Amino acid sequence: MKKTFPHIPRERLPALLAAMPKAELHIHIEGSLEPELIFELAKRNGVALAYPSVEALRAAYAFTDLQSFLDIYYAGASVLLTEDDFHDMAWAYLRRAAAENVLHTEIFFDPQTHTARGVPMEAVIHGLKRAADRAGAELGVSAQLILCFLRHLSEDDALQTLEQALPLREHFIGAGLDSSERGHPPEKFARVFARCRELGLRLVAHAGEEGPPEYIWNALDVLKVERIDHGVRCLGDPALVQRLAREHIPLTVCPLSNVKLCVFDQLGAHNLGELLSAGLAATVNSDDPAYFGGYLNQNYLETFAALPLDAGHAYTLARNSFEASFADQADKARWIERLDATFEQFR
Ligand code: HPA
Ligand SMILES: [Zn+2]
Fold this sequence. Notes:
Elements: H1 13-19, E1 22-28, H2 35-45, H3 54-59, H4 66-77, H5 83-99, E2 102-109, H6 111-115, H7 121-139, E3 142-150, H8 155-165, E4 174-178, H9 190-198, E5 202-207, H10 213-221, E6 227-230, H11 238-246, E7 251-253, H12 255-260, H13 272-277, E8 282-284, H14 289-292, H15 296-306, H16 311-323, H17 329-345
Parallel strand pairs: 1-2, 2-3, 3-4, 4-5, 5-6, 6-7, 7-8
Bound molecules: hypoxanthine and zinc ion.
């Protein structure tokens, strides 16, 4: 049964959305790199940037599609060289997450973006993991890592990357697939995902952000992923929607990202409400918050302001975020109790 909260008026929604405990399941840590930190790290590491100032860099954040964003995103990540750089980036994100009542986060990282520049795999993973462990100890935020393969590169490159990461296997819980979607279908990565499955990694893939519903089918059937990242284009295929609903496959939806990358013209045209009405396990996430105009709470706030969503939808989205996570059942139950308590307090 869906919960409803008729006693919570619409004016209380912004406070409720900010206060409610939540999980974030779709955040690229390189996409949390704020322009100020890009400049600080560039200076620290003696890396030359193509932009003269923070303002000039921010002014370049006007994207027409996924690729136009990725070009700038990879350029920004070029300032990351040492273990401390990766720690500092992730720590900045995790502090923000804690302030936004994020109890649990599953963080994507793109090792190939760094190893291709000669950065050791150990620097990437140890730096991120140190920040994740520190978040547990100092902020009470549970944080896990998901290693993503860049789909514009070859499957052999992905396989080599996986082998390189294997000595550090204990530090990440899953594998994902990101970067340029169109022209790089999931089945291109069938072997590497099969290997990840043998290794006991949890599996996710970006599909149906810009790509067709067929990519979502193949992410499920060929890669055997447990969650679909984005997936907003599933509504074009009723049989797919039925499958996603029947099998409770979560979608990690990123509303501000979708508008910035022109997947939807405006937030008011976003299909999040339809996804929920279709019985899909949709969640709200920030994707690349430093580039897309806001962190997790901003995604919730702007989306609820633009769409006819109420406190019942807020509850469903937050609850979905915990249920769709790769955390263990006891943690999920504890977080959902805290969610229920927050909703009890709002009148
Ligand atoms: O939204 C995204 N889509 C695909 N790849 C990405 N890498 C960072 N953000 C994204
Ligand atoms: Zn993404």
